[in-house]
Amino acid sequence: MSKVTHVAVAILLKANGEFLLASRPQGKPWAGWWEFPGGKVEASETPEYALVRELKEELGIVATFIQPWLQRRFDYPETHDSPAKTVHLHFFFVTEWQGELNPHEGQELSWQDAANITVQPILPANTPILKALALPPIYAISNLLEMGEEDFFTSLEIQLESGLKLIQVREKHLQKPMLVRFAEQVIALAKPFGTKVLLNEDVELAKKVGADGVHLQSKTLMNLKEKPAGLMVAASCHNAADLAHAQELGLDFVVLSPVKTTKSHTDAVTLGWQGFAQLISSVEIPVYALGGMAIADLSQALSEGARGVAMQRAVWTTYQSTRP
Predict the structure, then answer these.
(1) What's the pLDDT score for residue 66?
(2) The sheet that has 34-35: what strands, in order across it?
(3) CB within 8 A of 109, min separation 6: which ones?
(4) Distance from C-alpha of 71 to C-alpha of 77, rounded to nearest angstrom
(5) pLDDT single digits (tens) 260-286
(6) Residues near 30 by Cβ (< 8 Å), separated by ≥ 6?
(7) Cα(255)–Cα(286) distance, rounded to whole angstroms?
(8) What pLDDT digit, counting tens, does each position of 123-161 carry?
């Protein structure tokens, strides 16, 4: 087995969601390709320590707020200027730092938006990371049945103003005419904010009402042969088989549940954070943690490799715009 090189990787984030990419300097393997800043973890270092050191050496900044995120292995093929190698990447969000960015190694720097990457080529290990970064850390699920129409729409407007960017309309108690009316109202409110709205289960209805996508239940997912075209497609997963099928189909993201006990399923067997992390460790599509989640769980979810948390109740009362 070839030696594995551990690498600490920084996703430097601005408040507007832009992140920093750097070109690899001439004289290094894959010169000219774009990547997130970072570097090799030395034998005596933790990944966090290596990250801080590399940022100071490469960019002249001191990271003051670091959020551990996911880990990934990637096998680089042999090239004309580099032997084949396996890297174990430790990704961290860095949202606060001191000092001015200064490319100490002659590299180019560019702030990028995940929805509109303007530099090429990107190192192949970073492709699934960019896909995940195109999604926000909070996925809200509508809760009209418990809240009532007036309170729900009041809260929705507040949360949209606060930065909510991803919503699932899930109201199984509504008959189709009322569901259409409700979904169209949510979409109309969300559109000016650039917020994506997914409709639960019904692909054709999602297209009819102008939703951005559809969220499929696990049973529907497992019967699916190919990803529906023309929509963002997400799904609910509960086990390794669900996750594997979602990845095979190339879905945009999934939720995995239940992580904790929920109000609606108090007797369900929960995954716990350890079980959650084990299940998603080799999954390359973005995963949200669902089940008993609150804003306070976001840091834990990110540390376990999730893209964020999905919430049906807490989001409508406690959500404030948050990074990463």
Answers:
(1) 97
(2) 34-35, 19-23, 109-112
(3) 20, 21, 22, 23, 59, 101, 103
(4) 20
(5) 987 776 677 899 999 999 999 989 899
(6) 24, 79, 81, 82, 123
(7) 9
(8) 989 988 999 999 999 999 999 999 999 999 999 999 999
Q: Are residues 164 and 246 in the same domain?
A: yes
Q: How far apart are alpha carbons 79 and 229 in whole angstroms?
A: 36
Same domain, 121 and 145: no
Q: Mark whether 22 and 120 lie in a shared domain.
A: yes
Q: Please tell me whether residue 202 adopts helix, strand or coil conformation.
A: coil
**pLDDT for 321:** 52
Q: Kindly state whether residues 144 and 119 are assigned to the same domain.
A: no
Contact 255/221 with Cβ under 8 angstroms?
A: no
3-state secondary structure of 281: coil
SS3 107: coil
> Residue 87 belongs to a domain with what CATH number?
3.90.79.10
Domain co-membership, 47 together with 86: yes
Cα–Cα distance for residue pair 284/249, rounded to 1 Å: 12
The token duo for 297 is 């769980």
Q: d(Cα 23, Cα 31) in Å, to the nearest integer?
A: 7
Which parts of the chain have pLDDT scores under 50? 1
Range of the domain at 154: 138-318
Number of folded domains that form the chain = 2
